[in-house]
Design a protein that fits this description.
Layout (H helix, E strand, L loop, with lengths): L2 E5 L2 H23 L2 E5 L6 H7 L13 E5 L1 E3 L9 H13 L15 H16 L8 E4 L24 E6 L4 E6 L1 H5 L4 E5 L5 H8 L21 E6 L12
Parallel strand pairs: 1-9, 2-3, 2-5, 5-8, 8-9
Antiparallel strand pairs: 4-7, 6-7
Length: 246
């Protein structure tokens, strides 16, 4: 079972997650000389990214040793307001003056399939001869139980290869580029950031409900190993769980 970290206030949750990220980064830089950080999209992590760029955290380590990746991306042009990378750029990269060479964005100039292939190649090139194991993969959770762009009843849920895939999501009528569940699960650490009462049903289905399948509740495909997976929740998101606060 994954470790649950439950907080009364979202501000406390985000602060605790920022501390956790900084601790992991310091350990990774000391051990391997870099910290590979997969960012989540959507609106939930915006507060976290802004906090990491604030005076409280920005001096904790050398940001030149942090390499940023994206767990998924909307297949829209560079600069489109719907891109996950644009939110991260405004909230995190620009305030910290992160070098472009440390940011691995999804190139959407070709077809979705070409975009996925190029992103997989970029990641492989960075890791070189080393196994592809991200130091931290940050994930969110949709109210329909999706995470990254692993949406209910999509073909990518049955992908067994640890790679990047394109997928058309009928629910949002959009092509997406996403890490597959096997690639996410290779990460050394995985953290879910989930808050709000609107997510409580999805949290319950992933963490406690025994009915249904991963086709209905895709985030179940993500490992729940207590050694590396932590869920950072507020009280509202955790309200349907019987698990006590950790």
């Amino acid at each position: 079972m994954a470790v649950l970290k439950i907080y009364k206030e979202v501000s406390d949750l985000v602060d605790a997650l920022a501390e956790y990220i900084c601790d992991l980064a310091e350990e990774a830089i000391k051990a391997r000389g870099e910290f590979t950080f997969v960012l989540s999209g959507g609106s939930s992590p915006k507060k976290l990214y802004a906090l990491l760029a604030s005076e409280k955290f920005r001096s904790r380590f050398d940001w030149d040793k942090i390499y940023f990746f994206f767990g998924d991306e909307r297949f829209v042009p560079e600069g489109n307001p719907e891109r996950n990378s644009l939110m991260a750029e405004n909230a995190l990269f620009k305030p910290l003056a992160i070098k472009n060479s440390n940011i691995f964005k999804v190139d959407t100039t070709g077809t979705p399939e070409e975009s996925a292939q190029k992103y997989a190649e970029m990641i492989a090139k960075h890791f070189g001869e080393k196994p592809i194991e991200f130091d931290l993969n940050l994930l969110g959770l949709g109210d329909n139980s999706h995470t990254a762009s692993l949406f209910p009843n999509t073909s990518v849920l049955h992908e067994n290869e640890a790679t990047i895939r394109s997928v058309y999501v009928e629910e949002v009528q959009m092509e997406r580029i996403t890490m597959t569940a096997p690639l996410i699960n290779r990460s050394r650490n995985i953290a879910f950031l989930v808050f709000g009462a609107g997510k409580s049903e999805a949290v319950f289905h992933i963490l406690e409900d025994q009915s249904g399948s991963a086709d209905l509740y895709p985030a179940r495909l993500i490992a729940q190993d207590a050694e590396k997976v932590k869920w950072f929740l507020d009280g509202a998101a955790a309200s349907r769980l019987t698990e006590t606060v950790k």
